[in-house]
Design a protein that fits this description.
Length: 496
């Protein structure tokens, strides 16, 4: 370490490092603690010249020798988060600290200095706090909009079809359970998994589960459903489970004229249910895109039947969107992980339950307890399977609302959308981040996409109305709010 005149010595720097790492500001972020510790330790041992993106990526963030910083921007994004964390620390817990550790922009080598006199520090604290306060004002309404996600029931709100979507838009209606002893959770959760598999295709847009649940166990005309949901294709099907096997019959219907385009029955052992889901999704996509059906056999691993059963039960309860539902989901997802410790989707779902309980309008668990748990679980899920979208989305919204870092939030949400272009929450959250950072045109654009992906969601319509209002499009905003009141007079959002 090169020690400038009047700068803190090595002992003072290490003491300050330990003070920061042990603070409440850094308590909930294991990754930030490891990052800061690495940067400071390398610097005080005269190895600051090694602090390049490749070295940091492999030493701190678990990247291998193929890591290319030009493609993977994890170090740059996390450095921005670390700078924000340090600013937050010195604005709060570290106000009286004599030594300052900072990461100047344009470098990863930390700087060490003595704190400015009290009057200068106070002035800096005022400026540092101003940004979060201003963003916080706009976040109040974002949190209120999210509350609607967790109210029971849905409302049939036909979307304004103004956002261009890919050439194929479809809805997967709840599968009907024709088992000898039907279980409500099984068919619904299987539907959710199939939606998730289809949503991974960049050339498709798939309606969210919450908008199709209203058609569960109901008689319907596919053409009317297609019009209500704004799609051109409908997937229907049945599921039958018995003696360790599961059979799914799926059909694809044209939303314009109700003509059946394709149908097929799949029969597999329950241990191969993940392969079954992939096969069905691939066959449907092949029909819509005019490509050849995939070859039999997929890369999906086999699943422990007990783990999958617990995962489906957890998915069913999580989709209730209530405090009780999330708590019961946590129980079942933990059972799934106990039965199969490498079950990445179960870790991701568990992370989502903790995230919902610690924020987004429920907040029955302290955010500084629930959200660090969610971060750890989401990161673990991605270590097991980096193709998952939801953990990235969770890290995105937590980065913004909990860590006040819109740069990191955008990074994670963009990755989530790349992995699942139909992930409704990612667009909803992006619209709120765009609003909070003053990009109102983008906020409206993202809100429209979110509503198209979840057209029967009151939260999506309320959020779109709010973004239109913020951007000065008063007549369009009023139209959205009046739709809410017309279709659900008891929902507070439209009146408010």
């Amino acid at each position: 370490m090169t020690k400038e005149r009047g700068a803190p010595d090595q002992s003072q720097i290490l003491q300050q490092r330990d003070r920061i790492l042990g603070s409440a500001t850094f308590a909930g972020s294991k990754r930030m603690r490891e990052f800061l510790n690495f940067l400071v330790t390398e610097s005080v041992n005269d190895r600051a010249s090694r602090l390049k993106e490749f070295t940091i990526g492999t030493a701190v963030f678990g990247r291998d020798e193929s890591f290319d910083p030009r493609i993977d921007s994890v170090v740059r994004v996390e450095a921005g988060r670390l700078r924000s964390k340090l600013m937050e620390y010195y604005a709060e817990a570290g106000q009286e600290d004599k030594v300052r550790i900072e990461i100047p922009k344009g470098t990863y080598a930390p700087s060490f200095s003595y704190s400015a006199p009290t009057n200068d520090v106070a002035r800096q604290i005022t400026v540092t706090k101003l940004g979060p306060v201003l963003i916080g004002v706009t976040l109040v309404i974002a949190v209120i909009g999210i509350i609607a996600l967790y109210l029971p029931g849905t409302t049939a709100i036909v979307p304004n079809r103004t956002v261009p979507l890919p050439p194929h838009n479809l809805a997967v209606l709840p599968l009907r359970d024709w088992s000898s002893e039907p279980q409500g959770y099984f068919s619904e959760a299987m539907t959710d998994v199939l939606i998730a598999k289809l949503s991974e295709r960049p050339d498709l847009r798939v309606i969210s589960l919450s908008s199709v649940l209203r058609y569960k166990d109901a008689e319907f005309d596919p053409t009317i459903v297609a019009d209500e949901l704004g799609v051109d294709s409908i997937v229907e099907g049945t599921v039958f489970r018995e003696s360790g096997n599961v059979r799914i019959t799926a059909s694809l219907t044209n939303g314009d004229d109700g003509q059946n385009l394709w149908s097929k029955t799949f029969n597999r052992p329950i241990t191969s249910v993940l392969k079954l889901q992939e096969e069905i999704a691939s066959e449907i996509a092949a029909q819509l895109l005019g490509t050849l059906p995939p070859a039999t056999g997929t890369s999906a691993p086999e699943i422990d039947p007990l783990a999958y059963e617990a995962f489906l039960k957890g998915t069913y309860w999580r989709n209730r969107l209530t405090e009780q539902g999330f708590n019961r989901g946590i129980i079942y997802f933990r059972q799934a992980i106990e039965a199969q410790p490498d079950y990445a989707q179960a870790y991701a779902a568990l992370a989502a339950c903790h995230c919902r309980l610690g924020g987004h309008g429920i907040e029955v668990v302290r955010p500084d307890v629930a959200l660090p748990e969610s971060i750890e679980l989401a990161e673990k899920a991605l270590q097991m399977d980096d193709s998952l979208a939801e953990p990235n989305a969770l890290l995105g919204i937590i980065s913004y609302k909990y860590e006040w870092d819109p740069t990191a939030a955008e990074f994670y949400l963009q990755r989530a959308i790349e992995k699942n272009p139909s992930l409704f929450e990612a667009y909803l959250w992006r619209s709120q981040i765009a609003e909070g950072t003053g990009r109102l045109e983008i906020a409206v654009e993202q809100a429209r996409i979110a509503e198209r992906l979840n057209p029967l969601s009151r939260a999506a319509t309320l959020n779109l109305g709010w973004q239109l209002l913020q951007s000065g499009q008063l007549f369009e905003a009023e139209s959205e709010f009046r739709e809410l009141i017309e279709f659900d007079p008891d929902f507070w959002g439209g009146h408010w």
